[in-house]
Amino acid sequence: MPSALQSLEIVLIKNSLLVAFAIMGSTVWISYFLSDRLTRGRLHGSAIAIFIGLVMACIGGIITNGKQGIADIAALSGIGLMGGAMLRDLAIVATAFGVKAEEFGKSGLIGILSLFTGITLSFLVGGTVAYSFGYRDAISITTIGAGSATYIVGPVTGSAIGATSEVIALSVAAGLVKAILVMILTPFLAKYIGLDNPRAAMIFGGIMGTNSGVMAGLAATDPKLVPYGAMTATFYTGLGCLLGPSVIFIFIRTIFG
Question: Model's pTM, two decimal places?
Fold first, then answer.
């Protein structure tokens, strides 16, 4: 006869996705509670939730010595599915559907230019940092530069051009740092940069690019702006994944060999 704890573990494993939803819901509730009580909403709940998630991932990695954070614990394996690409992309697309076509059209050429400007600046900053830390090969410079675009573009680019796992890990770290900085600083800087209308939100999303950072930052600024920033930030990610392993890598390889 299995013990009570063993029986509970079996139930949790069999209902892993439901467990994941329960844990995520509880985490978000706690995060917004802390945001409201401790920071009066200045630090958005989603930023606190991401921090808690990173801590949980670290704990899971230490306990199991695995590679998927808290999802390596059998009873919490559903978090791996819930946090996977499928549901993530579904959430991003669903958010972007909140955009009004007439508002999106108003961005015009400036919206397109913001995408290319944001991607170019991100690769330039990330590549410069990589070079300053001693990386001289085109593959590493491109991969870390891609990571400074977003933590999704980094691994995609690195895998495509043959970067080492260590360099890909650095690109992910660069993207996470950028996402956290964007989500924390956006509410404080919004009024100084005129981030108070859909057009500005689309340009902001095109320049910053990081979906999680842009959406969390805009949610703390004005929830009505989230779909517009999410739309261009999503395009940013796709464009970065397209240009990183091709045009940008060829350009950097021409310079560094």
Answer: 0.68
